[in-house]
Each structure stands twice: as C-alpha cells, then as structure tokens.
Amino acid sequence: MSGKVADLLWEMLANAGVKRCYGIVGDALNPVIDGLRRNGRIEFIHVRHEEYGVFAAVAEAYLTGNPVAVCGTAGPGVTHLFNGLMDARKEGAAIIAIAGDVETSLIDTEALEELNPYKFFEAASLYTGRLVNPDQARSVVNTAILTAVLEKGPTVISIPGDVASADVADRSAAITIPNPAVLRPSDADLNQLVKMIDDAKTVAIFGGDGCRDARDEVVELASRLKAPVGYSFRGKQWLEHDNPNAVGMTGLLGYGGAYGAIHEAELLLLLGTDFPFPEFLPGHSVKKVQIDKNPKHIGRRTQVDLGLVGDIKATVAALLGSVRDKTNDSFLRKQLADTNSFHNLLQHYVEKGPEIKPIRPEFLAATLNDLASDDAMFFADTGTACIWMARHITGSKNRRLFGSFTWASMANAAPNAFGAQLAYPGRQTIALTGDGGFTMLGLGDLLTQVERKSPVVQIILNNGSLDFVNIEQQEAGVIPFGVKFDNPDFAKVAEAMGAKGIRLEDPGDVRDGLAEALAHKDGPVVVDAVVDPFALSLPSHVPFHTAKGFTMSMAKQVWNGKMDDVIKTIERNVRLV
Ligand SMILES: Cc1ncc(C[n+]2csc(CCOP(=O)(O)OP(=O)(O)O)c2C)c(N)n1
C-alpha cells in the first residue's frame, strides 16, 4: 500500500468487506478516487446521479449485510447523497459515504462548494468525521466503519483533497469488526412474559424486520400458542411464507385478518417492529408486550404493558422452553377464515384481469408473482407499487422484498434493483416502479444499467399520475390536484437508450410480455405497463376518517364538474368502494 491518506482509507474499507463504491467523481474527490484506482480492490460504480448510487448501495448493504461505500464531491455532489443516506438510516443499511470537502486552507471561508458536513449530515449520519489532519485518518475511518456496520446505518467521512493526498504516518489498515453480541432479556422479565402468555386465552403476534433471523422460532411459537401472525411490510418477507398462521398486514396497505387478529386478541406480542402507524394498532383493550433489540423502539408507537430488550431469535428461543402450549384454536381459525375471505376479495381483479382494459395493476402484479423465480428479488417504489407488492407478491424462503419502507422516498426501486443485481449477478431482479419515480431517478441511470448489461427488469406502472398521492388526496377529502402528467412511450425511450423495451397496453399481452422480460438476460428491460389510473385499493380495515375523506372528495369532485372521474372510480372498483 502506498502511503497517502486516500490509500489507507480504501485499504481499510476493503478490509472491512466493502466491495463497491457508487458515486460521481470530481474536483475535491479526485485525490480520493485516485487512491481507489491505485488500490484496485473496490469496484467503482459510476452512476449518473449520486442519489441513485446511494439507493443501489442501500439495497446491496441491506441484502448482503456487508458495508458499502458511496461518494460525492464537495457541495452539490454531497447534497445529492443526502436522501439516500436518510433511507440508509431508516432501512438500517451500513453505508459509508465519502464526501469530498474543500481544501483545508479554505474551510470556514464560504468557499466555492463549501458545505459544513457536521451541520449538513446531522439528520442522516450516525457519525461524521472531517479529516483535517492525516494523523486522524486511521481513527476516523475505523470509527466510521464500525459505527456503520454495528449500528446498521450511514456514516460520513468528509475529506478535503489536500488531506487525501497527504502522507499518513500510521498505515495500519487492518480492521477488526466484532460480531454483534447476543442480547436477551433478564430471567425475571422473561418469567413475567411467560406468565402473561400462559394467563392469556388468546395471543396474537405482530412482527417486523427484527424477525429477520428469527423466522423459525416465531413460527414455532405461533404454532404452539395457536396465535395468528400479522406483520409489517418489512416483516412480511420473513413471516408470511410457509407459515400456516400468517394473517397478512395491517396499516394502509393492510390485507387479510391482521387488523382483526391484533385487535381481538387478549395479548399482543410485538416482535422486532417499529411499525409507525399507531392508528392501526390496538389501544388499551389489548395487553401488549414489545420485544426489540433497540430499546428506543419500546412503547414509542403505542403504550405497552411490558417492554423487553433483546434479539427476537434469542428471546423467542428462550420462551419456547417455558411457555405452555395452548389447545384451543378457535381464535386462530376465525382470523384465518377472515384472511381467506379477504384473499378471495383480492382475487376479483386478478381473475377478471385478462378482460379488463386498461390493465389492472392487481392482475399485472399477480401474473408477475406467478412467473417470477423462487429466488427473485423484488423492489417496490414508494407509491402504488407498494400496495400491489404487499398484496400480490408472495415471499418464499429465498425471495426478497425490499423498498424504502421506512423512509418512504420515491424513486428507490430501480436503483435498489441495480445494486441488488451487482451483489447477486444473474439472480432475477425486478423493480416495480411508478412512472413518477422512474422519471425522477431511474431514467437517467438506465444508461448505467445498459453500460453494465445489468439484467434488471423494471416494470413501470404507467398511470400518468402520482397515483398514490391522488388516492391520499381523496382520502383526505380534497379534490386531486397536481397529480397528473403526460408520459412518453417508455418502451421506445428504453430502446433508444440501449435497453430492451416492452410496451403492455392490452391485458392479453401481460403474461407473455412479462415472461419475455424475465427471460431477457443480456441487459436491462423496461416494461411500460399502461395501467388503470382509477384502480383503487382500500386497506382491510378502513378507518372512519378515510371513508369520510373519500366521500367528501367524491362530492367535491362532482360539484367541480369532475363527474366523469367519479364515475370511473366507482365503476372500476366495484368490489372495493
Ligand atoms: C422524493 C419524494 N417526493 C415526494 C414524495 C411524496 N409521494 C409519495 S408517493 C408519491 C407518488 C408516486 O408516484 P409514482 O411514482 O408515479 O407512483 P404511483 O403512485 O403513481 O404508482 C409521491 C409524490 C415522496 N415520498 N418522495
């Protein structure tokens, strides 16, 4: 290793398991990138927009569990990283951002492109180090890496070009990353929980991403307690597949019997979830126990009767040895029956789909679910893609479902899928994107996918609108406004950019079109699916204010001469409205 700060930086990152750095080079960053080139162990992924690079990195870090680097140059380049870093923080992805910084002689002079990294990154970064002296390098880089990996979130190393190219005295690039400790509640707390479970006639479970490593334990506990299992979007991929007690999701995307199960049980176990919609969680009528390895999650979304700090795997494993099996399964059977009848309702537009034009998104998603491989990785844009993924894409042991589920940024799916494809070359990678989301970020970097011949399938829900907001506005009782726009033929645009383009307008073409897209291995595919902009989805539990909002909005639309839209909304959602 040669002896500059930049050399030490990349060698330490490579030793920590970083395989890729996504970003855009330039001015302040040039000496840093020169070090990456010299090092040769980390692949540089040039993207057309820094934010795209961070979303790609977030998916790679989340799926692989390895840290990933991103970079942007001083000022504007750095600011483009920010939204993605917020996503990394919320989704729990170990990202190390290398931020270009102005020369040390210019710091605090309002120089061109100068940005105070401490202030700027404060909301996103778990640790920000500014390298103003080469002697800090080893310590700052070590802290940035360990914080990102162990606390699962983004950290920032801000580097002025003159420091990056300066000689460094301490060149020890070895890095030790300890495995996380196993966290289990005290015996006294566990005993109290066992008693609460044994005393309860009926128990329900609601799990989140904290169940990632604990699927088998949670499924076994549910089976022994005859407990229905509901989940957040982040919990779905771990808890739904091959689980006879699965009852779906609650919340705005809710389906199945989850809402009823968690409200009607005597005792609710909240496992590894920070589900952010308290209005869909029960109040005082249900006893609640929350278990999470992050103590800050306990009780913050809903008041709980008992809070335990621990890994779900270790804690549930300990419970399995102590709780009494329940014998009466009538509560479970009722929740499963409700789940079943909701599934039948969801099938309406799937079954009728082949005859309905414009294409129903339910039919599109269900057909995709059918055709995709058993280890496919699916990514949903924030928008209606999340609804159709939640309801019509089923998980499996090796399938992965990911999105900006906690930060809820638009435009995440295409870059997420790109990062996942780089991490798992050749594995089926599918982005369900909005037309708003794709034109926000996905379109420019389609060129990056083309250059790299990345076989990413992006399916655009071409509804000519910011449809999720269109639905939100109606829920809020107002007239949809600022949500419509015109689109080009995305398949033609994709072809012009060197990708494969498939346009779907006719429901009869959906199956063959999707199959053709999934079979394409030579590079990216854009499926431009012209879908019904009036397709509506209501949660399995419709809160009063939602129902009222829709009614108000419909009335206002009629008064404002939008009768045509109202009729279409009603006509095209016969089983739902
Ligand atoms: C960066 C960003 N801007 C705005 C929003 C608010 N927002 C959430 S969903 C959405 C609409 C998304 O539209 P589109 O991508 O076309 O998907 P659709 O809902 O139509 O399927 C908007 C504007 C957001 N979440 N993130």
Describe the structure.
By secondary structure, the protein is of the alpha/beta class. Helix content is 41%, strand content 15%. Helix 10 links the parallel strand 7 and strand 8. Helix 3 (50-64) packs parallel to helix 5. The model has no long low-confidence stretch (mean pLDDT 94). Thiamine diphosphate binds at residues 381-385, 408-410, 434-437, 461, 463, 465-469.
Describe the secondary-structure layout.
Layout: H1 5-15, E1 20-23, H2 30-39, E2 43-46, H3 50-64, E3 68-72, H4 76-79, H5 82-91, E4 95-101, H6 117-121, E5 128-130, H7 137-151, E6 154-160, H8 161-164, H9 187-199, E7 203-207, H10 215-225, E8 229-231, H11 233-239, E9 246-249, H12 258-264, E10 267-271, E11 287-292, E12 306-309, H13 312-320, H14 330-346, H15 348-351, H16 361-371, E13 377-380, H17 384-392, E14 400-403, H18 413-423, E15 429-434, H19 435-442, H20 446-451, E16 456-462, H21 467-475, H22 490-496, E17 500-504, H23 510-519, E18 525-530, H24 544-559, H25 563-571
Parallel strand pairs: 1-2, 1-3, 3-4, 4-6, 5-6, 7-8, 7-10, 8-9, 10-11, 11-12, 13-14, 13-15, 15-16, 16-18, 17-18
Helix pairs in contact: 1-2, 1-7, 3-5, 3-18, 10-13, 16-17, 16-23, 24-25
Residues 381-385, 408-410, 434-437, 461, 463, 465-469 line the site of thiamine diphosphate (TPP).
